[in-house]
């Protein structure tokens, strides 16, 4: 005992280093795993992988834990990362992939990966398990499975078709395909993420957010869902929710290049240029083949960080990938002339709006729909983004007026509008033209109708907004607000092919059937006229 005390005395005052290296967290993870605390094991393994990203054993153990947690897609991504980037001869990964595919019901991939494992490891540790998987697949094929495999292949084809439909702007077609997929494969997360995008691009914002909320409830670590939801909140002006998600993203440290790619682009669109550059630059040296958006995002983030020479290099790489790329040519010309300003440089991998006029109509319509979404939600938090619209010189006056009206209504504060002729301040609703005030009174009537919020937003985008834009061109007002609202409500139901009569609509809005008929004819003629 005295000897121990003496030794302790000698140690007194000395600093004992406590090293939290990868091995330390790996051992903690294994203890948690043995105690069946899988969430804790996952956390420690993620720390270990972050510290030693090239350690295959750490990654495979993380993949195993993710698999036990039911996160098969995430597990597979790590296993593919090992095979693609670290050790293509680590054949155990093929068995682990086969096992995950079996749990996902993807039997064709199960058999394929199990056979690859058996080919390279005929006497391997998992040989018997792999053979059992293959035997099970063969038995099921002979007894039950031909139809299921056909359905699986059809699912893959439909997912690709849905993705192409989104790219082509056929959002309703994509939604139909993706909704069917999510019903068949409840854990096929890429379909959910694409479904959310299709909803969002078709301006069904609430549905888009609901899909991603559902994904993150069931699959908390789904990075694509976190990134997309953060961008949705930013677009919708819900800045408190956006900032919460943004802080969550700042604590993510991906190892897989695809995750770094997604994270970097998301930070870019959120204006976090330093983080965007960090994560995009981190994956530049991998052997993946990068595309035009990747190099453009790197160029933009570099330029925003006051590194024009580096931005120039990346825009030239855009031209290497696409020799006829007009966007890169435009930015390089402005850069050489010394006329490229930061506020002109966008992460959008297309021509800037002042150059690409054909894209303006879509942006214009989407922005107006966004404004009405902020209004119907009565969200004071959106006032800041509305103030921004009012001060943009290149924003159409129609957008500025509507933004200012909503901002005054939500925040009850003066709003400054800047246009080509100078600036002026609006303080109350009476400061606005009559077509703005009457248009918003129509919205107030529609809000009283017996429809859901998402249906109201659809009606606004489909019927009210085109009529409002037409009237604004002639500075005319909606004469009879109740009759106009009733007519729009009836027209929307006819487009939806709903079984409702004109008399029923008239009674609901407190006007006569003949008045609804007259105003419906008037609105139809208005929509058929050419823009002034």
UniProtKB/TrEMBL annotation:
A Pfam cross-reference name: TPR_16
Residue spans of the TPR repeats: 22-55, 189-222
Domain of life where this protein originates: Bacteria
InterPro entries (UniProt xref): CellSynth/LPSAsmb/PSIAsmb, TPR-like_helical_dom_sf, TPR_rpt
Keyword annotations: Repeat, TPR repeat
Listed SUPFAM superfamilies: TPR-like
Alphabetized PANTHER family for the sequence: LIPOPOLYSACCHARIDE ASSEMBLY PROTEIN B, TPR REPEAT-CONTAINING PROTEIN PA4667
Name of the protein described by the UniProt record: Tetratricopeptide repeat protein
């Amino acid at each position: 005992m005295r000897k121990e005390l003496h030794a302790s005395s000698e140690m007194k005052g000395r600093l004992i280093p406590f090293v939290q290296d990868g091995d330390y967290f790996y051992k903690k993870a294994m203890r948690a795993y043995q105690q069946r605390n899988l969430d804790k094991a996952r956390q420690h393994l993620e720390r270990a992988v972050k510290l030693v990203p090239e350690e295959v054993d750490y990654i495979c153990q993380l993949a195993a834990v993710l698999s036990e947690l039911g996160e098969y897609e995430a597990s597979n991504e790590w296993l593919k990362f090992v095979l693609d980037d670290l050790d293509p001869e680590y054949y155990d990964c093929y068995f682990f992939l086969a096992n995950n595919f079996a749990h996902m019901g993807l039997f064709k991939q199960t058999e394929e990966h199990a056979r690859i494992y058996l080919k390279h490891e005929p006497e391997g540790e998992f040989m018997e398990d792999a053979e059992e998987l293959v035997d099970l697949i063969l038995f099921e094929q002979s007894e039950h499975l031909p139809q299921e495999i056909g359905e699986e292949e059809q699912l893959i084809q439909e997912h690709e078709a849905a993705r192409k439909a989104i790219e082509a702007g056929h959002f309703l077609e994509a939604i139909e395909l993706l909704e069917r997929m999510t019903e068949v494969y409840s854990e096929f997360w890429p379909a959910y993420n694409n479904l959310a995008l299709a909803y969002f691009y078709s301006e069904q914002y609430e549905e888009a957010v609901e899909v991603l909320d559902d994904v993150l409830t069931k699959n908390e670590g789904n990075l694509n869902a976190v990134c997309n939801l953060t961008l949705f909140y930013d677009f919708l002006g819900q800045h408190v929710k956006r900032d919460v998600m943004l802080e969550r993203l700042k604590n993510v440290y991906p190892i897989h290049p695809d995750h770094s790619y997604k994270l970097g682009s998301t930070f870019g669109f959120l204006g976090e240029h330093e983080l965007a550059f960090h994560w995009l630059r981190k994956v530049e040296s991998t052997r993946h083949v990068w595309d035009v958006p990747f190099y453009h995002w790197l160029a933009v983030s570099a330029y925003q960080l006051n590194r024009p020479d580096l931005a120039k290099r990346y825009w030239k790489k855009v031209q290497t990938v696409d020799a006829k790329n007009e966007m890169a040519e435009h930015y390089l010309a402005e850069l050489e002339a010394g006329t490229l300003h930061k506020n002109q440089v966008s992460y959008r991998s297309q021509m800037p709006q002042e150059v690409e006029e054909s894209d303006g109509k879509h942006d214009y319509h989407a922005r107006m729909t966004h404004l009405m979404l902020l209004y119907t939600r009565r969200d004071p938090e959106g006032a800041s983004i509305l103030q921004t619209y009012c001060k943009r010189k290149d924003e159409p006056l129609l957008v500025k007026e509507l933004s200012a009206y909503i901002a005054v209504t939500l925040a009850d504060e003066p709003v400054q509008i800047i246009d080509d002729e100078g600036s002026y301040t609006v303080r109350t609703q009476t400061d606005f033209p009559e077509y703005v005030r009457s248009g918003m009174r129509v919205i107030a009537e529609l809000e009283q109708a017996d429809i859901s919020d998402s249906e109201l937003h659809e009606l606004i985008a489909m019927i009210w907004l085109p009529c409002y834009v037409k009237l604004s061109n002639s500075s005319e007002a909606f004469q009879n607000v109740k009759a106009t609202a009733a007519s729009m409500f009836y027209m929307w139901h006819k487009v939806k092919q709903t079984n409702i009569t004109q008399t029923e609509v008239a009674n609901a809005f407190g006007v006569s059937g003949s008045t609804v008929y007259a105003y419906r004819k008037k609105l139809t003629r208005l929509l058929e006229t050419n823009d002034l």
